[in-house]
Amino acid sequence: MLKALIISSDMQLVWAVEPVLRKLEFDVNLKPTMAEGSECLRYARYNALLVDFARAHSSEMQELRRSEMNRATPLIAIAERSGRKAEMLAEAGADTVWARPVFPDRVHRDLMSVRAKAVGDRRLQRRLTLGRSVLLRYSYDGRQYFQAGILDITETGVAIDTMETLPAGRHVQIQFSLPAMQSAIEAVAHVVWRSESGRAGLTFLQMEEQQRRRLDRWLHCYRRGMSTGHLYAAS
Hey, what domains does the chain have and what are their CATH numbers? Predict the structure, then answer.
């Protein structure tokens, strides 16, 4: 699940931005003050930061950018109006600056761009190549389960090879069991991309915490086994 942090006490701004983020499948965390928002950045990694500087100084951007976990996270700064402060926010480290009034078209366009970057970053994570030898079952629109081969997998998604129609942008129910696992993992996934050759990339949207821990543990053990030459994965 993609994660976004909004730092603002302006509920009109929040009401304009939060629904767009949720529509783009971000889990949204809202904090009214800079201090509370900065504390969140110490303990969690986010894919998007939206920070209201109407009552804050651009120097506080430096504090936000000190976060080791979120130093490179796209940051959208909202200024009271266009002018020198908007320029200062850009110079201080904001990736994008919105000057009030904030227009819906720009909100959607810029957040779509942030989402595309976040999904792209996830596809660059260290993948484990399985080469179609492990199977995944998927279903959508109440149809029967189809079968696909898993090409590679990470903590946040999976690439598959399937002969069936699987349009990009669709949500699907998936089941898969990795080598040495005693039971299957089930999740809801989003089809991020699909090629004409039948390959597709899925990102995990909903997965029970216990199953997510099983997957993380399996990937950790498998990578460790690859590095030592002793392949083993915890179930």
Answer: 2-123 (3.40.50.2300), 128-228 (2.40.10.220)
* Beta-carbon count within 10 A of 32 CB: 15
pLDDT surpasses 70 at 130: yes
Closest by CA to 79, choosing from 10, 21, 26, 22, is: 10
Q: Is 39 within 8 Å of 70 (Cβ atoms)?
A: no
Residue type, 106: R
Determine phi and psi for 179, rounding to 5 degrees. -50, 135
The residue written with tokens 């997965």 in the block is 207
117, two tokens: 């970057």
CA 32 to chain centre: 23
User: Would you give the end-to-end CA distance of the chain in angstroms?
Assistant: 23
Give how far the C-alpha of residue 4 lies from the chain's centroid of Cα atoms, to the nearest Å: 9
Residue 52: which pLDDT band, with cuts at 50, 70 and 90? very high
Peptide bond into 179 cis (omega under 30): no
pTM: predicted TM-score of the whole model, two decimal places: 0.52
